[in-house]
Design a protein that fits this description.
single chain; alpha/beta; 5-stranded antiparallel sheet
């Protein structure tokens, strides 16, 4: 359809109804509307209506001797992980954990943290991972805001857990998880797909962290996406902080697909240590934040040669880094991925294989994943043409329940989906994007002052509010500067 013909159609619609608002005139032609709203979102794929725990138990029954977790020199089979999680789940049930009870997890990256996470779900509760390096005052605020009933902690963090206003259960390698002679059989707690699976927090502009509630259905839809088929995700590296939503991919994609979680050594990994883990751990797939991917490719590109798929996202990815990675590891697929925590980790993806002609300016964030819909809309929620910048809205599976206890914020960000079935919702991302001529989506920027630093979403207003809470500060402003390319820093100015 020519632009002239499309404009004629818009003018005819205006003449037919002179009272119509200009913002309500449909600027898309029929062919492009079909392509961008229907064809680009033709992603429906059957997913079982089961909880995370039920799907894991099915694998434990089907492949009991398969290795589920590798942590340094320790291995847990599916049967062993299931039994240990069952024992802890019975302990939690005895402590009063039930349907949608929030259980905080304050543990370092380990096999035990996986046991804890699975046990909470088996008990019918929802897990709330806490950053182990955040101030106790911040953790206390999160625990109180979410209504946490119990904290699971390892020995390294029992002292900090004791400062939180809820009871603590110690979960560590040398702690017995079965109460007395209790059975290690599945506890049999039934959870529906709409039951809460986990709560994760992101920065909030008012100074209060936003608690995002994600359901079992959301997690299952991500874990069973067709992009994980083919064997590339047999051994996935668990290196993200547990409280970072990338851990959803790192844990549940392998564990709900019969694969293995390989736990990275505790603490932050520099590029030398990460390269060693990738080379020596038999890792087949890994997620890296954009900044870490760019740095690893610059310093140790050969470390990716044995990895089948590298998923990266969070900020603008360097086209030069992608080109260098594909050159150094031509057998490795690099996937540029996009997804806010509110849409269960990943929503769009763009895969690149060698030989791949990398664009010099902007690598697309891709197309919707299974059962996901993506819309590029203007301020009146009308779809825009390819090449026109609009705001990205995400619908379909993975759209979270909302922000716990923040109903006004939830209603402003999780809105009715005018293009989906009755009663469905879409998430307003705040990201400015555009369709390419190939029906991919490109990221352009933000519609607000939210930023991403090394993969973490940060509301600059939260930092400003924290500064203004100090009695000696009367005014504050916070910006991001990038004096050295690739090295973003948050700078605060105070009066």
């Amino acid at each position: 359809e020519s632009i002239v013909a499309r404009l004629v159609g818009v003018l005819e619609a205006a003449v037919a109804d002179p009272e119509v608002l200009v913002s309500r005139l449909d600027a898309l032609g029929g062919v492009e509307r079909e392509r961008l709203l229907v064809e680009a979102n033709d992603t429906v794929r059957a997913v079982p209506d089961a909880s995370v725990g039920e799907l894991f138990e099915a694998w434990a029954e089907r492949t009991p001797d398969a290795v589920a977790v590798v942590c340094e020199d320790q291995e847990l089979t599916y049967a062993e992980l299931n039994a240990r999680a069952n024992g802890l789940a019975r302990t939690l049930i005895g402590q009063g954990v039930g349907a949608e009870s929030k259980v905080a997890i304050l543990q370092d990256r380990s096999a035990e943290v996986i046991v804890s996470t699975l046990a909470v779900l088996k008990a019918g509760g929802s897990y709330l991972p806490l950053h182990t390096d955040q101030p106790v005052s911040h953790l206390r605020r999160i625990v109180e805001q979410a209504g946490v009933v119990l904290v699971l902690a390892d020995h390294a963090h029992t002292a900090r857990a004791a400062e939180l206003p809820v009871p603590t259960v110690v979960v560590d390698e040398d702690e017995p998880l079965l109460p007395g002679d209790a059975s290690a059989a599945n506890p049999g707690v039934v959870c529906g797909g709409d039951s809460l699976a986990y709560v994760m927090h992101t920065s909030g502009s008012t100074g209060t962290p936003k608690a995002i509630g994600v359901t079992h259905r959301d997690v299952v839809a991500l874990a069973l996406d067709s992009r994980w088929q083919g064997g590339a995700h047999e051994r996935v590296l668990f290196r993200s902080p547990h409280a970072f939503d990338a851990s959803t991919y790192e844990l549940w994609v392998p564990l709900l697909g019969g694969g293995t979680v390989v736990v990275a050594p505790r603490g932050e990994l520099d590029t030398v240590a990460l390269a060693g883990v990738l080379a020596g751990g038999g890792i087949t797939a890994v997620f890296l934040t954009t900044a870490l991917f760019n740095l690893l490719v610059e310093e140790h590109p050969q470390s990716l040669a044995g990895v089948r798929e590298v998923w990266t996202g969070g900020e603008f990815v360097s086209p030069a880094a992608v080109a260098q990675a594909l050159k150094a590891a031509p057998q490795t697929k690099v996937v540029h991925v996009y997804g806010p925590t509110e849409t269960t980790t990943f929503a769009l993806s763009h895969a690149m294989n060698a030989p791949y002609r990398v664009r010099e300016d902007n690598i697309p964030i891709g197309r919707p994943m299974d059962n996901t819909r993506a819309y590029v809309l203007d301020h009146a929620l009308q779809p825009v043409s390819a090449g026109v910048v609009g705001e990205l809205y995400i619908g379909g599976s993975g759209v979270a329940r909302g922000y716990l206890g923040q109903y006004a914020l939830t209603s402003s960000r999780f809105v009715a989906d005018p293009f989906g079935a009755a009663g469905t919702r879409m998430y307003r991302t705040g990201d400015l994007v555009r369709w390419t001529s190939d029906a991919d989506i490109e990221f352009v920027g933000r519609a607000d002052d939210q930023v991403k630093i090394r993969g973490y979403r940060i509301e600059l207003g939260e930092i400003e509010n924290a500064l203004l809470a100090h009695p000696d500060v009367t005014q504050a402003a916070v910006i991001v500067r990038e004096d050295t390319p690739g090295d973003k820093k948050i700078i605060a100015y105070a009066v």
